[in-house]
Amino acid sequence: MNKNTTIIERRKELIEVSKMAKAMRAAEEIDGTINYVLLNYIYKTENANEFKTFEEWQKEGFGVRKGAKAFVAWGKPREKKTDRGDVVKYYPITYLFSDLQVYKRKREIGVKEAGIKYENFVGEIKVSYKRHSSPVRTRVNGASQVNEVLREVWNDDLDYRESFYVLAMNNQCDILGYAELFKGGVSSTIVDERMVFQLLLNVNATGFIVAHNHPSGTLRPSNPDRELTKRLSACGKLFNIGLMDHLILAGDSYYSFAENGEI
To answer: What is the Cα–Cα distance from 21 to 242, expressed in whole angstroms?
Structure first.
């Protein structure tokens, strides 16, 4: 028996069984006439509860098991016109897979912006930075020189809003680079110590200087300023990266925690 003969026999069988299916009052139908109860009856799938196309299973996160054979479901007869204008009748065919033939695919969580894809494995972390082939480094000796450098790189909002800067240093008191890590409002800014040391460890700094500004014009450190200085100093000791100074800039003046014996 060839393939075409098999399909014709199946169609005849379907027509006969469909008469019985009408009495079953199946709640869910495929293409108007074929229902799940009928498919179970014809193919003897027994415990199958759902029949869906490959695309429908795929959208729900399922894959079809290797070697699974699709169930053929014929829809109600339809008519179409040929190019010559003749009207022909045909039976639309739907290829379905039961819930016993599919498996739940492993969940993939993608972070599109960063191009990272996690799929049940531990991802490798890579951190890198670039510098000029012949970097120009500034050596500073004392808070006054640090103040001059900071005013050269500080944004124009010194008297407008609080910002927090970090200078990464080496053993020779050379400035490896600077970064404006945090911005705040007119009277405060929030500093995350973890991000400070993330930067310092990335550039192999052996020391660092931090600075922030007081738009109000007062040079007197607040209690939160002193607490932050203590925390940064304590964290630095854990990594053997010493806090060398903490400057507060206000107007044309500055306050140095190191010069005032607070470090």
So the answer is: 82
DSSP 142-187: SHHHHHHHHHHHS-TTTTTS-EEEEEEE-TTSEEEEEEEEEE--SS
- Check if the beta carbon of residue 161 is closer than 8 Å to that of residue 186: yes
What length is written for the chain? Answer: 263
* Residue listed under structure tokens 């010493």: 242
Write the pLDDT tens digit of every residue in 173-193: 999 889 999 988 888 888 999
Q: Output the pLDDT for position 184.
A: 86
Provide mean pLDDT across the span 33-53: 61
Q: What number is the average pLDDT over the span 139-144? A: 91
Phi and psi angles of residue 110, each rounded to the nearest 5 degrees, phi first: -105, 140
What number of other Cβ atoms are within 10 A of residue 44's Cβ?
Answer: 8
C-alpha to C-alpha distance for 14 and 19, rounded to whole angstroms? 9
Q: How far apart are CA 208 and CA 168, in angstroms?
A: 5
pLDDT digits (tens, 9 = 90+) for 3-13: 556 656 666 66
Q: Which residues are CB-contacts of 60 (< 8 A; sequence separation ≥ 6)?
A: 52
Q: Residue 238 corresponds to which tokens in the numbers above? A: 């854990």
pTM, full prediction:
0.51
Element (H, E) at 102: strand 102-104
Tell me how far apart the alpha carbons of residues 226 and 228 are, in angstroms, rounded to a whole number. Answer: 5
DSSP β-ladder status, 93-98 and 62-64: unpaired
